[in-house]
Design brief:
Helix 1 crosses helix 2 (about 30-75) and helix 2 (about 30-75) packs across helix 3. The protein has helices spanning about 5-25, 30-75, 80-90, 95-120, 120-135, 150, 160, 165-180. The protein is elongated. The protein contains 8 helices and no strands. It has one domain (about 1-180).
């Protein structure tokens, strides 16, 4: 399954590119993009690979969903990002989906550090990270962020507070495809 299928690669690359643009502009990844992506991946792999294709596609989708679902429950990841990674998983399978997440997480970290350095808030960020680590112990009583990502996305200063994760997933998918196709 993975990214070796030109059809899967084309569908996923174009879908995540569109999702990335939408996320940068509106901080939303709509269901009208994520749902057909997931269903299309499952149908494609079922037709192409029979029961084995169906199983691999569903496993990839569940892996993608599962990786980000906890972050969504905590209020620090949008539901569109969760569903987008599930759609990616339905097309690319569990291993490539895990790679997409890891690469996107690293791109998000790099992006965040650059933004913090440019704004002169790096020390403040390290203090906030330390405070967050201390608060993790108290999360057994109170799950969730102070403000859910959906609320933050409506704020005027959202561009300083949020990272469009779908755009990071688009970079990850394209990077992964280049890595696999051009050894």
């Amino acid at each position: 399954m993975e990214t070796s299928s030109p059809i899967a690669a084309a569908v996923v690359a174009s879908s995540v590119a569109l999702a990335g643009v939408m996320d940068v502009r509106t901080f939303r990844v709509p269901n009208r993009l994520t749902f057909p992506l997931f269903v299309g991946g499952v149908l494609f792999h079922t037709v192409a690979g029979g029961l084995g294709g169906l199983q691999a596609s569903l496993l990839g989708g569940f892996v993608g969903f599962g990786i980000l679902f906890g972050l969504y429950v905590l209020g620090i990841m949008g539901a569109g990002d969760v569903k987008l990674l599930a759609g990616i998983g339905a097309w690319l399978g569990p291993m490539a989906t895990t790679h997409v997440f890891v690469i996107a997480a690293m791109a998000t970290a790099a992006y965040s550090l650059v933004v913090l350095m440019l704004r002169g808030n790096l020390m403040h960020a390290f203090i906030a990270i330390r405070m967050t680590m201390l608060q993790l112990g108290a999360m057994t009583k109170h799950l969730g962020a102070e403000e859910r990502v959906e609320v933050t996305a409506r704020r005027e200063d959202r561009r300083q507070r949020l990272v469009p994760f779908a755009a990071m997933m688009a970079l990850a998918v394209i990077g992964l495809m280049i890595w696999e196709w051009y050894p």
